[in-house]
């Protein structure tokens, strides 16, 4: 993590007050949460519409923070303490990260896409760790606060940083990629997330493609080659960069040839070697994420034949196709971190095709930010279910009712249970589970359906 004196910090960002008497104070790391201060941290408060982090500056310093930023339009800065007055604290955090990463001898991989960013990040980091000292975005610190914060956690001796880049609208990824200046970028796919803000998949593709604007010369662009919205745009991008594609079809540089799926993950081969790879992650859709990570690792000198060793040590971020066990011995796929029609269909396909279970149950909640066609997307999820492969459906939320409505047409009303209360849902669900039951729990982050998983585990 960043280790600099206040005098060094003053050379990296614009500070508007006299800090000469604190110049030799050493900063070790950055905190944006006063409750998580580690001695030596630089505390960065933010001024929001409802809360102002400046209220906690003195508390942070009393807990051991070495210094704190202070936004100049906030009155009464405690100038007797080591506070650094800046024009705007978020901008200062971003500029500090920009300056810090430019001082490091490090390679950067930037990852974006509608689905699979975090899983791909985890896979790429695992593969690259076969040869390099690697750090990756922790959790979902992938926005205009999270990415700078992640950069400032990088160690001086880290050789490769794998950075996730998220967005809610146009221009955000452009900013992030120009801050991080990646050597390689991955675009996992173009889905329906952010339709509410951007209006169309074409606009989503344009927003995701902003990631190439920060790519270093002679860098690598890796993208889902079966997606025409990406292929058409990148063929005319006019960028001085290498391009590699992954996908299901033989039109791509890397594609799967044979796939064997079971409850422990997937074993697959690819077009360029007969060596099989075992991916300890559920869902064949995750093989595509693995392919993109493999292309990135190969770019940095990891031989394709060695990558199975990297997959064997893979640890995914929680609540992403995470297989856990309930109190009755039932198997639960906790995929409650996020959802879109693309990822929900993929998860349902997984459950439909897994064998060895007497009962298969879906617990599905609202998919958010889908725009004016949101009810139609949810209804179509319901009508797409196979009555011979899914036994029961439980839904939660207002839009979940639309899933239930569609599902009733194919499963019948006696197999569909819509709820607006998690406790009642969990109580009814418990009645239908035993050690031979497989349950999928999936919805957008705002629905917090992991609560149901935790209840089943009690």
Summed up, what is this model?
The protein has helices at 6-12, 57-62, 89-103, 117-128, 146-151, 172-180, 195-198, 201-208, 228-235, 285-299, 307-312, 341-353, 374-383, 400-411, 422-430, 450-457, and strands at residues 3-5, 26-28, 30-31, 42-43, 67-71, 83-86, 107-112, 134-136, 160-164, 184-187, 220-224, 242-246, 256-262, 265-270, 273-279, 322-325, 331-335, 359-365, 392-396, 416-419, 437-442. By secondary structure, it is of the alpha/beta class.
Q: Notable features of this structure?
A:
about 450 residues, Udp-n-acetylmuramoylalanyl-d-glutamate--2,6- Diaminopimelate Ligase, Chain: A, domain 1, 16 helices, UDP-N-acetylmuramoyl-L-alanine:D-glutamate ligase, about 20% strand, six-stranded mixed beta sheet, Protein-Tyrosine Phosphatase, Chain A, 3 domains, alpha/beta, six-stranded parallel beta sheet
Biggest beta sheet attributes: 6 strands, parallel
The CA-CA distance between the termini, in Å, is 38 Å
Number of helices: 16
Q: What proportion strand?
A: 15-25%
Dominant shape: globular
How confident is the prediction overall: mean pLDDT? 93
* CATH domain topology of the largest domain: UDP-N-acetylmuramoyl-L-alanine:D-glutamate ligase
């Amino acid at each position: 993590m960043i280790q600099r004196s206040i005098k060094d910090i003053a050379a990296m960002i614009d500070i508007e007050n006299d800090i000469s008497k604190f110049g030799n104070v050493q900063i070790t790391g950055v905190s944006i949460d006063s409750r998580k201060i580690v001695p030596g941290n630089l505390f960065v408060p933010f001024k929001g519409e409802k809360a102002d982090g400046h209220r906690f500056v003195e508390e942070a310093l009393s807990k051991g923070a070495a210094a704190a930023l202070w936004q100049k339009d906030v009155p009464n800065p405690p100038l007797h303490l080591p506070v650094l007055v800046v024009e705007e604290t978020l901008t200062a955090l971003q500029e500090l990260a920009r300056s810090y990463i430019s001082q490091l001898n490090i390679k950067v991989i930037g990852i974006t896409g509608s689905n699979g960013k975090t899983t791909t990040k985890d896979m790429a980091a695992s593969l690259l760790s076969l040869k390099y000292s690697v750090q990756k975005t922790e959790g979902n610190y992938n926005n205009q606060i999270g990415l700078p914060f992640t950069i400032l956690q990088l160690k001086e001796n880290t050789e490769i940083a794998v950075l996730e880049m998220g967005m809610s609208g146009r221009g955000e990824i452009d900013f992030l990629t120009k801050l991080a200046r990646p050597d390689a970028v991955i675009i996992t796919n173009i889905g329906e997330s952010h339709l509410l803000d951007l209006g169309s998949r074409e606009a989503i593709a344009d927003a995701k493609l902003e990631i190439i604007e920060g790519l270093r010369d002679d860098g690598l662009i890796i993208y889902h080659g079966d997606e025409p919205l990406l292929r058409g745009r990148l063929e005319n991008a006019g960028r001085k960069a290498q391009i590699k594609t992954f996908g299901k079809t033989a039109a791509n540089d890397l594609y799967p040839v044979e796939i064997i799926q079971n409850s422990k993950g997937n074993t697959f081969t690819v077009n360029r070697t007969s060596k099989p790879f075992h991916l300890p992650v559920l869902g064949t859709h995750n093989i595509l994420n693995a392919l993109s990570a493999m292309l990135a690792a190969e770019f940095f000198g990891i031989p394709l034949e060695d990558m199975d060793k990297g997959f064997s040590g893979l640890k995914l971020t929680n609540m992403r196709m995470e297989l856990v066990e309930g109190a009755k011995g039932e198997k639960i796929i906790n995929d409650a971190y996020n959802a879109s029609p693309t990822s929900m269909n993929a998860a349902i396909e997984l459950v439909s095709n897994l064998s060895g279970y007497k009962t298969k149950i879906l617990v599905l909640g609202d998919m958010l930010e889908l725009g004016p066609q949101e009810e139609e997307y949810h209804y179509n999820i319901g009508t797409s279910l196979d009555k011979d492969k899914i036994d029961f459906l439980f839904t939660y939320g207002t839009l979940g009712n639309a899933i239930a409505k569609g599902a009733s047409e194919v499963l019948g009303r006696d197999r569909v249970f819509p709820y607006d209360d998690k406790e009642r849902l969990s109580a009814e669900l418990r009645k239908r589970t035993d050690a031979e039951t497989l349950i999928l729990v999936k919805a957008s982050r705002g629905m917090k359906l992991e609560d149901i998983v935790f209840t089943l585990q009690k």
